[in-house]
Amino acid sequence: MNGFGRSFKVQQFLSQITVIGIDETVKNYTIALRKKYRLKLPDAMVCASALSTNSVLLSNDTQLSRVTEITVDTVQI
User: Tens of pLDDT along 2-25?
Assistant: First the structure.
């Protein structure tokens, strides 16, 4: 695939992404999930973001499946 084709695919993928801020809800969920599951801060923030937006989290990290407050679909990369 040439550079233009890759660029188009990346743009197409990114057009489907919703960017959210780290508001009080995400902060509070992050703290609660980090304490409950002893997650690393980045993992807790990603899970909290999914929880606050009621989104399905796609991840290759099978450990996140133990977070019962969210739906995690494990994907192979």
Answer: 677 788 888 888 898 888 999 999
